[in-house]
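>> received
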Amino acid sequence: MNVVFSASAVQFTQGAPKEYVCTGTSGAKTHRGFCAECGSPVSARADLIPEIRGISAASLDDPSKLELDADIWTASAQPWDELSSTLPQFETTPTPEELQELAAH
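>> returned
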């Protein structure tokens, strides 16, 4: 699960992630960041929306303080995924406008 922040608010304190670049579902490039030491996923960013950065919730010091704003990519949810009945749901990649709205929360 990624937490979305304004790209200007993200600063890595232990070095920059090693990135793997691929084509996302939108057709634009997606950059997936991994710890250069252990390979753990730590970040994601998309050329489609350069103003935001996704950070792996598991990489945060205390992810228990997070509040979810939406369920994204629900079309590929597994049967055991517990999707919220009260949050907005997106089957695939939200539009840039929808992501900006979610990031504003």
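>> Residues 2-103 form one domain.
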